[in-house]
Amino acid sequence: MTSRYVISAFLLPFLGILSASVPANAKFNSNLTVEIDGVSDRQGQICFSLFKSSRGFPDSGNDAVDKRCVKITETPPKITFNDLPPNTYAVAVFWDNNSDGELNRNFLGVPTEKFGFSSNPVIRTGPPKFSDSAILITGKNQVISIKLQSF
């Protein structure tokens, strides 16, 4: 036997085991960790909404894939969205200083609490489009940082 055939004889069983361990319909889900930049104290909570389409983004938590508020216990505050299938997502956050679960606004409708979005788009006159905040989740765990803004 030549050395090529000897190597093949040893590799074939190993490759068979490897292929049997990964099902044909394997899902390559990921975790997305979101860190918040711009929190100066531990007062209140950070509210996160994760969207997988433009529907409802960024205001309608009812259309979000996941929505939660977490008390600020660490700096920087962070949250992990687990087991996300590959897709395009966008995250909207706000610092809920008074822990009422709402993004408070003044009489003109301008937010009085800090807010931010994935991809950190520049905010001038209104909320960003989904496409401006979109991030692609492709099977690898990701960590992103969102910078809080205010008017």
Description:
It comes from Crocosphaera chwakensis CCY0110. This protein is an alpha+beta fold. It has one domain (27-147): Immunoglobulin-like (Sandwich). The chain contains 2 helices and 8 strands. It has helices at 3-21, 130-133; strands at residues 30-37, 45-51, 66-71, 78-84, 87-96, 115-117, 135-137, 142-147. The strands form 2 sheets. Strands 2, 3, 5, 6 and 7 form a 5-stranded antiparallel sheet that branches. A 3-stranded mixed sheet has the order 4-1-8, with no helix packed on it. The longest helix has 19 residues, at 3-21. The chain is globular and about 45 Å long. The mean pLDDT is 87.
Give the overall pLDDT as a whole number: 87
- Please describe the biggest sheet, giving its number of strands, its sense, and whether it closes into a barrel: 5 strands, antiparallel
CATH fold-level assignment: Immunoglobulin-like
N- to C-terminal separation? 76 Å
Please provide the ordered H/E string of secondary-structure elements: HEEEEEEHEE
SS field, number of helical segments: 2
Radius of gyration, CA atoms, in whole angstroms: 22 Å
Q: Would you state the CATH class?
A: Mainly Beta
CATH superfamily: Immunoglobulins
Percent of residues in beta strands: 25-35%
What structural class results from the helix and strand content?
alpha+beta
Count of individual domains: 1
Count every beta strand, where a strand is a DSSP E run of 2 or more residues.
8
Q: Which descriptor suits the 3D outline?
A: globular
CATH architecture assignment? Sandwich
Any low-confidence stretches, pLDDT <50, length ≥5? none
